[in-house]
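Hi R.,

Here's the input for the nicotinamide-adenine-dinucleotide complex you asked about:
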Amino acid sequence: MSTERGKGTVAVVGGAGAVGSSTAFALMESSLVGEIILVDIAEERVEGEAMDLNHGSYFTSPVRVRTGDYEDCWDADVVIVTAGASQKPDETRLDLMERNADIFADMIPQITEGLNDDAVMLIVTNPVDVLSYVTWKVSDLPAERVIGSGTVLDTSRFRHSLSREFDLDPANVHAYVVGEHGDSEVLVWSSANLGGIPFVSYATSHGVDDVDALKARVEEEVREAAYEIIERKERTNYGVARSVAATTERILGDDNSILTVSTLVSGEHGIDDVYMSLPCTVNQGGVRDVHEFDLSADETAALRESADVIRESIERLDLE
Ligand code: NAD
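And here is the predicted structure with nicotinamide-adenine-dinucleotide in place:
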């Protein structure tokens, strides 16, 4: 780890934005983080965010927040990228793609040209799967060190939704969302379980008569979550900030945690050369392993369709 006290340094590019500043706020709670560097083209605003965040440091474990430039990312352990335009009401994440791909083509080489060999890039800007692929392509970094925040947030939403249906601690809900972080994402019901009890058995033994109706309700809640929030407050920031901070902690802690981050898929489930979320073992080296589920035939088909959605978007960009 890169700071004197053996704690990690995290750079947040886009740190003056709603997601970047909320992520910095969440990261201040972590005993693994010693320094947070906020980088943003909005110079005055990013200074204000750093000042404001620092004034809470009396109540957190020792951490310093400062502003910096792209070069200040070079010594970081984790570089989180939230920079870019954000989703407007009724706009899909893929609509954002071209605007943000241009920003990335200019910005990423400036971050990676002097980046230390051990750093992990964690991309959050939407469409996150496409922009993680763009980052990997334009940076020449090893794929395991370029991660997208992926469906870690959607997986949390899925668990939250099921935990509320059954009045359970979300920690006892084991269920994953995979594929695109977006409209084509796939909720994996076939292996979902509550405290080790398969979802359908749990539901039917707890008074649920119409399991399909419950599934449809949860699917809609999870898939529509971002749209519902954006309609009310124009952006999402706290849920994503928590999920990105948690992913960063698993990286800094070298935890070998299984998370549905977005990663380069190379043959899993018959899918190739696309970034999307599958359960991955994550540690200080980035993605250690990509895992294949035992999916139902319908889930496999949906996952391949989701990969096609992302691939079509990537192909619309001229990356060669
Ligand atoms: P925002 O507009 O509040 O913040 C974006 C920040 O990026 C701004 O401060 C802007 O000045 C900065 N910026 C733009 N170009 C830059 C550059 N070249 N270098 C440095 N900084 C630059 O937007 P937001 O609400 O924070 O959202 C940020 C991104 O995160 C959006 O793309 C949004 O869709 C995405 N997002 C992703 C998830 C997820 O789960 N992956 C969830 C929510 C939002």
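One thing worth noting: The chain has two domains: 8-148, 151-316.

Cheers,
M.
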